[in-house]
């Protein structure tokens, strides 16, 4: 469970999520413990191997939303998720547009980083390769 509040972005947030190099799924719950509605945007450093759903959402005060992170099979890499969030009004309807307007107005979202780490079949940590592959260059 990830707990989000306006003043304490990292309250309750894990620093790492673990996946197998053969792929996998990780379900999480984002909870807004603050008094204002939050707009949340999730960014990933590797959209070739990871799918995040939803990648943008609103969370009402005292409510929660599910976040699903799916990893496809592929080489171990050092990847991360960045969660960005801003308080917003109840009349905001399009989360992505809200973040575009906030950026134009000079508002910077609070952010927190979650490292996406690899584990092997036996539960040991896999050290990412530093080799650059052809598909990483495109």
From TrEMBL:
It holds the Pfam family Motile_Sperm. The keyword DNA-binding does not apply. SUPFAM superfamilies: PapD-like. Signal peptide: none annotated. The keyword Cytoplasm applies. Residues 6-117 form the MSP domain. Keywords: Cytoplasm, Cytoskeleton. InterPro entries: Ig-like_fold, MSP_dom, PapD-like_sf, Sperm-specific_class_P. PANTHER family: MAJOR SPERM PROTEIN. Central component in molecular interactions underlying sperm crawling. Forms an extensive filament system that extends from sperm villipoda, along the leading edge of the pseudopod. This is Major sperm protein. The lineage of its organism: Eukaryota, Metazoa, Ecdysozoa, Nematoda, Chromadorea.
């Amino acid at each position: 469970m990830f707990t989000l509040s306006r003043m304490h972005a990292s309250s309750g947030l894990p620093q790492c999520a673990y996946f197998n190099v053969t792929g996998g799924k990780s379900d999480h719950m984002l909870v807004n413990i603050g008094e204002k509605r939050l707009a949340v945007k999730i960014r990933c450093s590797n959209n070739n191997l990871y799918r995040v759903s939803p990648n943008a959402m609103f969370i009402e005060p005292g409510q929660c939303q599910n976040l699903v992170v799916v990893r496809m099979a592929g080489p171990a890499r050092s990847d991360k998720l960045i969660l960005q969030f801003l308080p917003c009004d109840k009349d905001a309807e399009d989360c992505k547009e809200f973040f575009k307007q906030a950026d134009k107005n000079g508002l910077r979202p609070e952010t927190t980083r979650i490292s996406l780490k690899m584990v092997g079949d036996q539960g040991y940590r896999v050290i990412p390769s530093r080799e650059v592959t052809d598909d990483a260059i495109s």
